[in-house]
Specification:
This protein is an alpha/beta fold. Helix content is 47%, strand content 14%.
Length: 437
């Protein structure tokens, strides 16, 4: 979750911006002065700082360098009055990435905030992906099941048939889809998360709409199907696609045509459909929530990324990979895992799979002190008994850490479970399971 610092000595503007940032799903910190801003920067790993040039104790321009020395990766946006535009230019030369002139519209501020945070997330994910893929979009792992999966992906990439990726949460279904796209070497890759888009907007997002199709349709807009023309449309959590839209997707697959919302003409596209799900589609069909004919059209080729417990020989390789990445991001010198941690990782079942391992290593790096990474209180269940790293019991178990982390995300999201699930990278169903466990 992104962390934003607002450095502004006007209490009213500070409160308005803080509320806006929090409503957008980020964690907000505020400071009235340069000294307070530096205190926050010493205690938090910030993503973005909105910095007023005119502070009571320090010049905002002087503060840019101090902030970036404390957090080299932080982005700084200057807040400056219209009549001080020359100072804004000086701020850009000093390391700020943008500026916004006061007074400004809150819509303008929100767009800038989300654009910058989206860019940071994309860049961060690209760095992770570049490590994970090695050459192209390769999936990390040398276990027999992973070698077999890469072979199946290579076979699927050579044809145009739809692909259904089935697997547990956190196994890397999107990474499989991107590996398929990389292997095919054709067109763009467009992702649609059917689990986070509401039923009322998903049709317009997918298929676009004509001007006047509904109240807010002020102009004709292309949907993501058209954006993906010539490439891959990845439908994540396909089991959540509303039943009413499934015939339209079926027609797209069978005839390569569709109509925009409010449209009367068919539009021809050349799109390969790749879908993913972590639910039992057979059960969804029995319950009348998923069309059987659509399932058969999607399920021409099936790819199944294995759960981490079925590829234990890859656990330490993955752990070392994420350790190196996050240690580099946080400027920490870590030379590997302690022997006790390696043993604990190998004995743990990882119900959240690779995503759980990744998040665990990231949290451990954040709190690490020595040269080797140590995880304490890690538990696994085998034969009904619990094994754990033998550390003092005042340390929380992995389950307790997970629940605490989820609760923190929920609190930051104002108890909005859909938003919390998106932040955690899991489905609402998985979130409910984890809250109930």
């Amino acid at each position: 979750m992104g962390k934003i610092l607002i450095v502004e000595d006007s209490p009213d503007l500070q409160m308005v911006l803080r509320d806006l940032v929090e409503k957008e799903g980020y964690v907000a910190f505020v400071a009235n002065s340069g000294a307070e801003a530096l205190a926050v920067a010493r205690s938090q790993v910030l993503d973005l700082v909105f910095l007023d040039i005119g502070l009571p104790d320090l010049s905002g321009i002087e503060l840019i360098g101090s902030l970036q020395r404390l957090i080299p990766d932080v982005d700084v946006v200057m807040l400056t009055a219209v009549n001080d535009a020359r100072t804004a230019v000086e701020a850009l030369k000093s390391g700020a990435i943008d500026y916004i002139l006061k007074p400004f519209e809150l819509l303008e501020f929100r767009k800038l905030l989300n654009r910058l945070m989206s860019a940071r997330q994309s860049a961060r994910q690209l760095r992770i992906d570049s490590l994970e893929k090695g050459r192209g979009w390769e999936l990390l792992g040398q276990s027999p099941v992973m070698i077999g999966l890469r072979q199946h992906i290579a076979t699927a990439a050579a044809v145009k048939a739809p692909v259904l990726i089935c697997g547990e949460t956190g196994t890397g279904k999107e990474l499989v889809a991107r590996a398929l796209h990389s292997r095919s070497g054709k067109g763009v890759f467009v992702k649609v998360d059917c689990g986070t888009l509401s039923a009322s907007i998903i049709e317009a997002e997918l298929f676009g709409y004509e001007k006047g199709a509904f109240t807010d349709a002020k102009e004709t807009r292309k949907g993501l199907v058209e954006v993906a023309d010539g490439g891959i449309l990845f439908l994540d959590e396909i089991g959540n696609l509303p039943l009413a839209l499934q015939p339209k997707l079926l027609r797209l697959i069978e005839e390569s045509v569709f109509r925009r919302v409010g449209g009367v003409h068919d539009i021809q596209v050349n799109v390969r459909i790749v879908a993913a799900t972590n639910v039992n589609i057979d059960e969804e069909i029995r319950q009348g929530r998923f069309r059987e004919d659509l399932y058969y059209r999607l399920n021409v080729i099936t790819l199944v990324p294995p759960p981490l417990r079925q590829r234990r020989e890859d656990i330490l390789l993955l752990a070392d990979h994420y350790l190196r990445f996050f240690a580099g991001e946080m400027n920490k010198r870590l030379r590997g895992l302690t022997p006790e941690t390696e043993e604990a990782l190998l004995s743990y079942d990882f119900p959240g799979n690779v995503r759980e391992l990744k998040n665990l290593i990231e949290r451990a790096v954040i709190y690490s002190q020595g040269e080797r990474l140590s995880l304490v209180g890690l538990t696994s269940r085998s034969g009904g008994e619990t094994a754990a790293v033998q550390e003092p019991r005042e340390y929380p178990t992995l389950r307790e850490m997970e629940k605490s982390y989820i609760q923190q995300v929920l609190d930051a999201a104002g108890q909005n479970k859909s938003q919390a699930a998106r932040t955690l990278g899991i489905s609402r169903a998985t979130l409910r399971e984890k809250l109930g466990s």
